[in-house]
Design goal:
By secondary structure, chain A is mainly alpha-helical. Chain A is built from 15 helices and two strands. Chain A has a single domain (67-298), classed as MetI-like (MetI-like fold), CATH 1.10.3720.10. Chain A is flat. By secondary structure, chain B is of the alpha+beta class. The chains are: A mainly alpha, B alpha+beta. The A-B interface holds A 195, 197-198, 200-208, 211, 215-216, 219-220, 222, 297-298 and B 54-56, 75-77, 79, 81-83, 85, 87, 89-93, 102-103, 106-107, 150-151, 154. The structure holds adenosine-5'-triphosphate and magnesium ion (MG). Adenosine-5'-triphosphate (ATP) is lined by residues 17, 20, 22, 40, 42-48, 196 of chain B.
């Protein structure tokens, strides 16, 4: 028997062994796997196919075409919605990290006795109905809302601030509030997982507080940052309710375009195509972030 | 030795946690290049002292001097003191090379010099080729060696080691003990080595401090600590010992006669300068290897002797350990060398009536 065929046989035996050994596991993941397939991947596959079909108002013809994609890239309002989407999601993500990281850091490092209380307060708003929260913001941010009234009665401004409502700023403010717990908690958990001795070791080796943060805590919180990113940035790219209610036309996002293609324009082909463009860009972004942050190394 | 330069001086150092006094007015001096050990049971305050010396904890009272300079309130990064932690505390996100290079980088060494030193130190601890591995891929002993050279590389004036071998099994422990002593001699760096294993402290340290409940009970070289413990705790904690409690019956020059209830009277000798008076309660401490055993009543004038029955004997190659019951509530431990000259020894077996005897100066009379 040649060496090559021997290794081939060995590999086959090993494969069979692995199969039987994992049989229990295989049987266990089977039902959720079927569920995912039927209710998630199958509709997605159908959408992918539809995005290449000829389609118009309430019509869909199974004939291959790239028109839907071409239409998206040649319609200025759609392209602007795409730009808006990335501006708003990225801006909100940056704001979320700038606000959320210090909270997580403080919770994990300096507030052992307040920890659960602060986390609790952070989570309560999530439990309040989403629409109620958005309408509350609408009242607060409006032209005669509490923020403007307060600023005016303090004499800080003469006229109500217009950009507070029906603007990208408004969308960012509401998104910040909506997603904050999802940013704070993963970062908090990552920082909490850093052993105090590791920090002490860095100190004795010559790191001051800033250097400990820069060279130890920040790199060790990358998995938390990554989790926040996946948990928050991706859903924000698909956001449609917040821009529809507090954003106004200048904050029109891809989610709104997709919604209107399916629900009012009745053009499922274009809607599907935009959905896939968004999905592709999202996956590419996740891949880039994994690569750049070196998350694999840490997980 | 005594007039060598002092590296560390700790003066009346005290730390309280609530009502607990974790470290209670501790003072000691450590000379340059010394291998000093802090020995004490769990919770006696060893780690707390190290943390105050390293700057990770602020003392409530007292001062710390390094090379004559008061560093009591300096932050850790400003002190020329490094620590090897009991649980290694390697940086999980950095590989072996970057872990070892962490200190030098904070001190802004040129990369070329870092490369050279890291390579040399990895070779010294037999870890060449491990540069790219991450801490989670290392065994306990390997992690320990990385932690050691990470702390050594910047050649601090003082290295604090907190039970660095505590988590390792006996074999690796022993080989790393030797390695540590070699490295300490080679580098000439002053070591404070914390342990609660008395044999480790006795074999490795030039001098040691025995601690209990936040206080230092005795400081000395291993031989002094073993042969002349200052009090019951030290005698009991370091090595094995037999304790006989009684009252002083008479004082004759250097020697003291102690009456031990139900066992008789024995002669012993207090430490130099100890104030012993008739009627005082004392404890006699006799090391097991200082006692002898025989089946015939010994005819040696002046020796202490006591009759008993062999309850157990454990043959351990070079020696035999006897447990002899001398009263319903008291047994003595005796280590006897297995030398052919003492034929008698071979014939002693379970339940034999025997005599235990020892020279008066072998029983140390302790007042505390
Ligand atoms: N941060 C703290 N808060 C409250 N009590 C503490 C703290 N650190 C230590 N202690 C207490 O101080 C005492 C001394 O602790 P320390 O860690 O110095 O003991 P140790 O001698 O190092 O013991 P071990 O051999 O078990 O490591 C213990 O009773 C401990 O419970
Ligand atoms: Mg300790």
């Amino acid at each position: 028997m040649s060496a090559a065929s021997m290794t081939r046989q060995a590999r086959r035996v090993r494969f069979r062994y692995a199969f039987y050994r994992n049989l229990g596991l295989t049987l266990n993941i089977f039902p959720p796997f079927i569920y995912l397939m039927l209710l998630f991947y199958a509709p997605m596959a159908i959408m992918l196919v539809m995005s290449f079909w000829k389609s118009g108002f309430m019509t869909l013809e199974p004939a291959f075409t790239l028109d839907n994609y071409v239409k998206f890239f040649t319609t200025p309002i759609y392209v602007r919605a795409m730009v808006n989407t990335f501006l708003i999601a990225t801006g909100s993500m940056i704001a979320l990290i700038l606000v959320g990281y210090p909270i997580a850091y403080y919770l994990a490092r300096y507030a052992p006795q307040w920890e659960s209380l602060i986390l609790y307060f952070l989570i309560i708003p999530v439990e309040i109905n989403f629409l109620v929260r958005i309408f509350a913001w609408k009242i607060a941010l409006g032209r005669s809302g509490i923020i403007n009234s307060a600023l005016m009665s303090l004499g800080l401004i003469e006229e109500p601030l217009k950009f507070l409502l029906y603007s990208k700023t408004a969308v960012v403010i509401v998104l910040l509030h909506e997603w904050l717990p999802y940013v704070v908690i993963p970062i908090y958990l990552a920082l909490k997982g850093v052993s105090p001795d590791v920090i002490d070791a860095a100190r004795t080796l010559g790191s001051d507080r800033w250097s400990v943060f820069r060279h130890v805590l920040l790199p060790l919180s990358v998995p938390g940052l990554f989790a926040s990113f996946v948990l928050v940035y991706i859903p924000m790219l698909g956001e449609f309710a917040v821009p529809a209610l507090v954003g106004g036309p200048s904050a029109y996002m891809l989610g709104n375009v997709i919604e209107s293609q399916f629900l009012s324009a009745g053009n499922w082909g274009v809607g599907s195509a935009i959905g896939f463009i968004l999905l592709t860009i999202t996956l590419a972004l996740v891949a880039i972030v994994i690569k750049v942050a070196g998350v694999e190394e840490l997980m | 030795m005594s007039n060598r330069e002092i590296t560390l001086e700790v003066r009346e150092l005290t730390k309280r946690f609530g009502s607990l006094v974790a470290v209670d007015h501790v003072s000691f001096e450590i000379r340059r290049g010394e291998f000093f050990s802090l020995l004490g049971p769990s919770g006696s305050g060893k780690t707390t002292i190290l943390r105050m010396v390293g700057g990770l904890l602020t003392p409530d009272e007292g001062q710390v001097f390094l090379g004559g300079k008061d560093i009591t309130f300096d932050p850790p990064e400003k002190r020329d003191v490094n620590i090897v932690f009991q649980n290694y505390a390697l940086f999980p996100h950095l590989n072996v090379y970057d872990n070892v290079a962490f200190g030098p980088r904070r001190h802004r060494w040129p990369e070329a010099k870092i490369r050279e030193e890291v390579t040399r130190l990895l070779e010294m601890v037999h870890l060449t080729g491990y540069e790219q591995k991450y801490p989670r891929q290392l065994s306990g002993g390997e992690k320990q060696r990385v932690a050691l050279i990470r702390a050594l590389i910047t050649r601090p004036q003082l290295l604090l080691l907190d039970e660095p071998l505590g988590a390792l099994d006996l074999k690796i422990r022993q080989s790393l003990q030797l390695e540590l002593v070699d490295i300490q001699e080679e580098t000439g760096i002053t070591f404070i080595y914390v342990t609660h294993d008395q044999s480790e402290a006795l074999t490795m340290a030039d001098r040691l401090a025995v601690m209990d409940k936040g206080r230092v009970l005795q400081i000395g070289d291993p031989k002094t600590i073993y042969e002349q413990p200052q009090n019951r705790f030290v005698a009991h904690f370091i090595g094995n010992t037999n304790m006989l409690e009684g009252k002083v019956a008479a004082v004759e020059g250097q020697d003291v006669r102690v009456r031990v209830p139900k066992l008789g009277e024995f002669w012993g000798r207090p430490l130099d300068g100890a104030d012993v008076r008739p009627g005082q309660s004392v404890t006699m401490s006799i090391r097991p290897e200082k006692m002898r055993i025989s089946r015939q009543e010994p005819e040696r004038p002046g020796y202490n002797k006591i009759a008993g029955v062999v309850e157990d004997l454990i043959y351990v190659g070079v020696s035999t350990e006897f447990i002899v019951r001398v009263s319903p509530v008291k047994t003595l431990r005796i280590f006897a060398q297995n030398i052919s000259r003492e034929d008698d020894l071979w014939q002693i077996t379970w339940d034999d009536p025997v005599w235990v005897y020892w020279r008066p100066e072998r029983s140390l009379v302790l007042v505390e």
